Each structure stands twice: as structure tokens, then as C-alpha cells.
Amino acid sequence: MAGNSFGQIFKITTFGESHGKALGAVIDGCPSGIALEAGDFVEAMERRRPGKSSFETPRSEEDRVEILSGVFEDVTTGTPLTLLIGNRDVKSKPYGVLKDLFRPGHADYTYFRKFGHFDYRGGGRSSARETAARVACGVVARKMLAPLGISILGHTLEVGGIRARKMDPSVIHQNPLYCADMEAVKGMLSALDAAGKEGDSLGGVAEVLVRGCPAGLGEPVFDKLDAELAKAVMSVGAVKGVEVGAGFDAARLKGSENNDPITSKGFSSNNSGGILGGISNGDDLVLRAAIKPIPSIMKPQKTIDRKGRDAVLELTGRFDVTAVSRIVPVLEAMVAIVLADHYLRASAIEQDFGA
Fold first, then answer.
1. What domains can you pick out in the chain, each with its CATH number?
2. What's the per-residue H, E or C state across 223-256?
3. Helix/strand/coil (H, E, C) string of the chain?
4. Going residue by residue through the chain (355 aa), what tens digit of pLDDT does each one get?
5. What's this model's pTM, rounded to 2 decimal places?
């Protein structure tokens, strides 16, 4: 299976399955001299960890990160950094039905068509469990970016059609949805409760804001910063769309409305989302991800078996009602990884040409 690596200089490779012994990542290109110990991962892993609220799967994992290589005396050495996360609370029996039947809306069918044989327990490699490794990599990337003054903040913008109208960063970590509007949280939780009782699921929208990003990150043409961010975000399971800045709303504006006027004090608006021509312009980066409803639901669904015969799937087991809140820290991590990679690429260019 190819496609398990991301990045050029700061390059991550994730491995492992949902119900395997462990999952983890190798980071190649991590600079030396970064203070790093196991305790640095706790907060970020806790935010992504399942089982914290009624609308999340009750699977209980510690998600403790073990550093296997690349660190000596709590400082990175510049050699490949290997991170390991054990799977402790594995219950594979409810997934036995998926040995023969495919979940509508899930990767089961496409994995079978591509590989012929795959680990169907908990979704195997296609499970959201894989994102734990990404969040761990994001911790390292953010430690590299922090001294540069770059901060990354993700939040839930919408769940089940209920959209946040306020932006109060102080309340994001005071509710289980990581939403910046406490009034909207009430409606979102009510909608999630109703969907859960019906055996159904809900989608939504998450937003990531990056402050302190310097101008000049990104490469022309194919390696545009927004293109790399879009790929990073779209690589997260359940994400079906990405917007940067005004996004699709830009299609409904006139040029005079969409252009961001440039003044001696900077840009007076930010429809560009902080990126012009694929290169950061020094303004805040703004991107949003559309997240589909979880396909694993408790309602009977029409499907087929591995021989193509019609069937009805009725699931039991442990599933989220929505993926939006748990995806927020994953999106933050992927954005951090992209920025770390592009910062190192820009630094390499400066060193090569003596800038």
C-alpha cells in the first residue's frame, strides 16, 4: 500500500490499523535541537482521544505516545523520529459482519476492490484511529513553529446545519465540540442527541485559523501553499470539501468585492485566506473543511456482500455520532505539518542561495 507518507523535507509516514497492536509514525527531516518528551503529547492526544462525551465512541484509549528513536536527553537529534501509540481497548467481535458485507459510505468497498484483502476490524487502515499518529506528528511540527510566532487554532463551525455565529476563542476548550459559540453548542448537542437516539449521525464544518504566518511560504504552480493545505486536509477521513478564505462565496462576488485592498498597515480584508498565488501574504491563514456524517450508523442499510449479492447491513458496536469535534485537532496537526515542511523548504532555499 503506497500513499502513507506526506511532506518533502518534514516528512511523516504513518503506520498501523485500528485493531492492530499499535499505530504510529516516523518523522524524517525533523530538525535537531527541539526539546521533546512524552509529556509534550498528552494535551493534543487527549483532545483527539475518543470516549469523552456521549456523542463519541466509548472506545477508551490512553493514546500515550512512546518515543522510540530520534530523541536523546529529551532533545531531537535530527535522525528519524519514531512515535508509537498502543491499541489497548480493542473489541473486534461486532465487526465480524463486515467480513462479508460492506458499509455504505465507508472505505470497506473500495479497499476490497483495490486490495482484495484488507483488515475490516474497526475499519483497519481507513479508520479514524489512524489520525492519532497524525496528531502526534503535529505536536512535533507545532513545537518547531512556536518559536517563529506561528499559532494554529481550530474550532467547530457547524454541526447538523447549526452554525456558530460568534467567535469567542476563550470558550473553544470549554465545551466538547470545540465550538467558539456557546449558544450554538446547545443546539448542536441537542441535534447530536436526537441523531444518536435515532441510530444516525451528523456532519458539519470545522475551521482552522493560523496567526503569525510570515509572507513567502509556499511554492509557485503545483506546490502552492493552499494546494498543499487542501491535500493535507482532504487526506483526513470524512473530509469531503475544503475552502480557503472566502472559498465558494468568492464565486458569487465581484472582483471589486473579493479583492483585499492593500494599505501601509496591511490588508484591510482577508478574502484570500492569507494566500495569494499559492504563497502566504503575511495575513492570517483561514481554511474550512466540510465533514460528512459518520457512515457507521445503527439503522438498517442496503448493501451487497463480497460476491455482489444484495443484502441488508445492521451494525452493532461503538461509533461516533459525529466526527467533527475529533477532527478539529487532526486538522490543526495537518496544517502544522504543512507549515513546518514549507518553512524548512524556504529555509533550504535561503541557505542554498545565501539569502
1. 5-353 (3.60.150.10)
2. HCHHHHHHHHHHCCCCEEEEEECCHHHHHHCCHH
3. CCCCEECCCCEEEEEECCCCCEEEEEEECCCCCCECCHHHHHHHHHHHCCCCCCCCCCCCCCCCEEEEECEECCEECCCCEEEEEECCCCCCHHHHHHHCECCCCCCHHHHHHHHCCCCCHHHHHHCHHHHHHHHHHHHHHHHHHHHHCCEEEEEEEEECCEECCCCCHHHHHHCCCCECCHHHHHHHHHHHHHHHHCCCCCCEEEEEEEECCCCCCCCCHHHCHHHHHHHHHHCCCCEEEEEECCHHHHHHCCHHHHCCCEECCEECCCCCCCEECCEECCCCEEEEEEECCCCCCCCCEEEEECCCCEEEECCCCCCCCCCHHHHHHHHHHHHHHHHHHHHHHHHHHHHHHCC
4. 688 999 999 999 999 988 888 999 999 999 999 999 999 999 999 998 876 666 666 555 678 999 999 999 999 999 999 999 988 765 656 667 788 899 899 988 998 899 888 777 777 788 888 999 999 999 999 999 999 999 999 999 999 999 999 999 999 999 999 999 999 999 999 999 999 999 999 999 999 999 999 999 999 999 999 999 999 999 999 999 999 999 999 999 999 999 999 999 999 999 999 999 999 999 999 999 999 999 988 899 999 998 999 999 988 766 789 999 999 999 999 999 999 999 999 986 554 433 3
5. 0.92
Task: Look up cell 504563497; give the residue.
Answer: 279
